[in-house]
Amino acid sequence: MFNAGDLKKVLRSKRKQFVTETNAALRAIHQKIGNAVKKQQEQRLKFYHGYYEQFLTLFWEWNRDVQKTKKEEEKLIILFHKQRDLFQKARTVQGQRLRKIKNLYDQFLKDVQSFEENQSCLATNEGKEFRQEMAKLRRKIVADVQRQELANIRKSLQCLLL
């Protein structure tokens, strides 16, 4: 049978083999875990990189659209200021024309009154007919002036709104 020395050798040999197999199994487990972790990291990086590219593209497009909108806004502001200036100029010109028309009308009324005073010596019928025609003419002139002024104001407003 076995003696004590042989038994120790066998036990040492078995222990050594157990330690070697255990270390080899641990190395294999560590390698498998390392490979699994590395693979997960690569997959995670690939996953995040895919979304990173998509977000980066969207943010770039968004920024481009914001810049484009700012440029359009600036153009609209400039256009608005130009339209406002044109409208103010048109109002000034219309105001000047209206004053000229009013002055001309006032002068016309004075001249009509003066004319009527000078012509009072005409016969009653002729004077009456003349005054009626002058009144008609005056009403017609006032109506024409008002129509023309309204047309000019409409055109100015249409230009401003368009």
Your description of this structure?
This protein has 162 residues and is mainly α. It is 94% helix and 0% strand. The chain is built from 2 helices and no strands. The protein has helices at 4-118, 124-161. The relative contact order is 0.04.
Count the strands?
0
Share of β-strand residues: under 5%
Number of helices: 2
Pairing-aware structural class of the strands and helices?
mainly alpha
The string of secondary-structure elements, in order, is HH
Proportion of residues in helical segments: over 70%
Head-to-tail CA distance between termini:
118 Å
* Rg over C-alpha atoms, rounded to the nearest angstrom: 52 Å
Instruction: Give the averaged pLDDT, no decimals.
Output: 87
Low-confidence runs of at least 5 consecutive residues: none
Set down the secondary structure blueprint.
Layout: H1 4-118, H2 124-161
Helix pairs in contact: 1-2
Structure, briefly:
The chain has 162 residues and is an all-alpha fold. It has two helices and no strands. Helices cover 94% and strands 0% of the residues.
Can you tag this structure with a few keywords?
162 residues, 0% strand, 2 helices, mainly alpha
